[in-house]
Amino acid sequence: MQNLGIAITGSGSAVPTAFLDNQALTALVETSDEWISTRTGIRQRRLANPGESLTDLAVAASRQAIAMAQINPQDLDLILLATSTPDDLFGTACRIQAALGATSAVAFDLTAACSGFVFGLVTAAQYIRTGVYQNVLLIGADILSRWVDWQDRGTCVLFGDGAGAVVMQANETDGLLGFELRSDGTQNNCLNLAYKASNLDLTQGISVGKGSFMPISMNGKEVYRFAVQKVPEVIDKALFRASLCVDEIDWLLLHQANQRILDAVADRMNIPKDKVLSNLANYGNTSAASIPLALDEAVRQGKIKPSDIIAASGFGAGLTWGAAIFRWSR
């Protein structure tokens, strides 16, 4: 059989027009632009308005990726949406499929929080490598502002909203050079968006939980420690599977969580700063959207060139983390 490899042939991104800068946050919590920027590298974040949906952002990013890949929505076989903040708890990928007019595509959601795009990339590749599907649309999108406690300065300064997408196609040579995925549920309490139930009495002796969710909670020190330790390890393992050394990668593309994490990982791996892609100053932490958002921006700015090798790593709630080494194909 031929065409059992994957090529990433298109990218796109979308963010809300409204932004909240650090100075504006000082009206909500006790903080300052200096405090936020020196500890996180973030200067502003984009926020979806109440009428703006995850579907809207995902569709806009997807249309850009499909156009760059020079295919039609009807050519898609699979739409995979990585998100933790769906418009519908039953799933949002099907809404995106309908909005795009991708009538031949099966669609479903995948939830792995800030690791979602990397997990989705590996998942989508398996469908292509086995010959089941030829054209896959992978989307990473989140509207975290829906679930932020805007009185908690430890979290409200971090998160923003956005979407990014890529088109992956069957190819004679394989652009996914190596990967490694990991999970550790024993540390789940470090970062979560937890279910909260209130009791609802139905009849005598029978009660159910009426569902809602708590705001995002995070142990920032533990998450930082986890990321700085685990991310270099998982990238090293993915590079080993790709039979590459760190000097052979053109770009380091990490989940855009905190500039100090990006700097620490690059330092530990002896990767020069000019090889590290970073745009979180303008967007904050957009969870599953952060890697494809930064990828698309770098592609459209002309930084990433055809055949460049990218080491991408996502990390976050679960706890989950993973790395994928891939070649940009367009």
UniProtKB/TrEMBL annotation:
Enzyme kind, highest EC tier: transferase
EC number: 2.3.1.180
Protein keywords: Acyltransferase, Cytoplasm, Fatty acid biosynthesis, Fatty acid metabolism, Lipid biosynthesis, Lipid metabolism, Multifunctional enzyme, Transferase
This protein's record includes keyword DNA damage: no
Record protein name field: Beta-ketoacyl-[acyl-carrier-protein] synthase III
Catalytic residues identified in the record: 114, 255, 285
Residues annotated as domain Beta-ketoacyl-[acyl-carrier-protein] synthase III C-terminal: 241-328
Subcellular location: Cytoplasm
Source superkingdom: Bacteria
Major subcellular site: cytoplasm
Domain statement: The last Arg residue of the ACP-binding site is essential for the weak association between ACP/AcpP and FabH.
InterPro entries, per database record: ACP_syn_III_C, ACP_syn_III_N, FabH, Thiolase-like
Molecular function in Gene Ontology: 3-oxoacyl-[acyl-carrier-protein] synthase activity; beta-ketoacyl-acyl-carrier-protein synthase III activity
Region (ACP-binding): 256-260
Family: Belongs to the thiolase-like superfamily. FabH family.
GO terms (BP aspect): fatty acid biosynthetic process
GO CC entries: cytoplasm
Function in brief: Catalyzes the condensation reaction of fatty acid synthesis by the addition to an acyl acceptor of two carbons from malonyl-ACP. Catalyzes the first condensation reaction which initiates fatty acid synthesis and may therefore play a role in governing the total rate of fatty acid production. Possesses both acetoacetyl-ACP synthase and acetyl transacylase activities. Its substrate specificity determines the biosynthesis of branched-chain and/or straight-chain of fatty acids.
Subunit structure of this chain's protein: Homodimer.
HAMAP family hit by this protein: FabH (MF_01815)
Pathway involvement of the protein, from the record: Lipid metabolism; fatty acid biosynthesis
